[in-house]
Amino acid sequence: MAEQLKPEICVIGGGPGGIALAAAAANSGLPVVLVERDQLGGANLREGGVPTKALMAAAEIHDTLRRAPGFGVTGAPLQVNLARVQDHVRAVSEAAAANLSEERLAALGVTLIRAEGVFADRRTLMAGETAIRPRHFVIATGSVPLRPDHAGLDDPDILDVAGALDLSRKPSHLIVLGAGARALEFAQAVNRLGIDASVIDSGPALAGEDPELVAPLLDRLRLEGVRVREQATIVAFGRRKGGIRATLMEDGEEVGIDASHLVVVPGRVPAVDGLGLDAAGVDHGPAGIVVDRRLRTTNKRIYAIGDAVAGPASANRAEHHAGLVLAAITGRGGGDPETAVPYVVFTDPQFARVGISESEAREGNRIVRVLRVPFVENDLAQAERTTAGLIKVIASDRGRILGAAAVGRGAGEIIALWSLAMANGLGIEAMKSFPAPYPARADIARRVARAFDGPGRTPIRRSGLFSFIRRTG
């Protein structure tokens, strides 16, 4: 007879969002079961944010040393030991994995079941021989790569990011198929470490993002030597002696790009197949599981978070969703699952955004104000010679913040201020008045907010009480 568990919450999926929710629920004293069939931490530990950021850190140090003569600092010729770089990447991943270990979860009070979870009906999940009938389910299964269908991609020697990071010999030239965030991060990192990199994609780089802010990023990559071919007509991939060839169509003629290896960094789709969602009464489609603004599915016992629902795939979005769902389950309220979630591309310069874009804000002829300040106006950027970039803020005519985006050194840290403001309902007035340290980059956030009251701008109308006090003294 199958074992039966009846916890308060059953979390399906042990990625960043699932673990965050399970740990927080256990800390709140709620009985919680976590079901995960694979590695804890998900793809984020294998080929996602953790290893690529570790690689980028090594590449950034190399680039800093390369630029040192411009600051009057010189030293020995630079050398890259690929094996030592790989040791660094593995050490970072192992340290991150330790924070997501089975032992740590057990110490918190989380019951972990290592099995594939499949819904048997609207109230029951089968995980191996265990039947789980909780008060609430949370689906946090993340996403899986959507491999492109170009001819020749069935070659077993084609690599993903994890495979490329484990190469025993330094490759001479990598073709990176894909021009999303992780692909651009990876390409810039390996290029800085002395490996030629070509990025190709049949669509635009960073598709869906503001072209005004994407352009400086791509300019920098190309200036450093990364060959970015976006909107490319890809014919096929094939083996050649000593490597691989990508064949593109340009101006009616076939053009070949030869490389030692091909690394596929595809987009991702929700990992919801095989969960038995129909048996559970949960609506879903190609974009993921259908949820309401509280992240509840069509089965009110079941929530879905992170990459399992439509939207950009990211660990911080999944963790934000986890906090909202736990608040809803425990009756502490909730919040908007998307508005204040920041998104960062950790290239150099970084690209970061939160909220909606200018084009989205203008839909329906909405009256908006677009504020811009270049990084060149920041004294810290001048001191570090990192003046390329700008910040762009979208606000309503009354000063409500609709969105913000930045491209430049430290853009992710700058956008965190705007994320905090939006999450707490703060407007332009608050961003104009906070005291920023000097000469920190945070001053860029205050400077762009002050641009709201530019030449000819009618000040925001104050309350009646404020006006009365001014008139009467």
Secondary-structure map:
Layout: E1 3-5, E2 9-12, H1 16-27, E3 32-35, H2 43-46, H3 49-67, H4 82-98, H5 102-108, E4 110-113, E5 117-119, E6 125-127, E7 130-132, E8 136-139, E9 143-146, H6 161-165, E10 173-177, H7 181-192, E11 196-200, H8 211-224, E12 227-229, E13 233-240, E14 243-250, E15 253-259, E16 261-264, E17 267-270, H9 277-280, E18 284-285, E19 288-289, E20 302-304, H10 315-329, E21 343-345, E22 350-355, H11 358-362, E23 368-374, H12 379-384, E24 389-396, E25 401-408, H13 411-423, H14 428-433, H15 442-450, H16 464-472
Parallel strand pairs: 1-7, 2-3, 2-8, 3-4, 8-20, 10-11, 10-16, 11-12
Antiparallel strand pairs: 5-6, 6-7, 9-17, 13-14, 14-15, 18-19, 21-22, 22-25, 23-24, 24-25
Helix pairs in contact: 1-10, 3-4, 3-7
Structural write-up:
This protein starts with a strand and ends with a helix. The protein folds into three domains: 3-145 and 269-329, FAD/NAD(P)-binding domain (3-Layer(bba) Sandwich), CATH 3.50.50.60; 146-267, FAD/NAD(P)-binding domain; 349-453, Enolase-like, domain 1, CATH 3.30.390.30. It is globular, with a radius of gyration of 25 Å. The model has no long low-confidence stretch (mean pLDDT 91). Strand 2, helix 1 and strand 3 (32-35) form a beta-alpha-beta unit. The protein is α/β, with parallel strands linked by helices. A five-stranded parallel sheet has the order 4-3-2-8-20. Strands 21-22-25-24-23 form a five-stranded antiparallel sheet, sandwiched between helices. A four-stranded mixed sheet has the order 1-7-6-5.
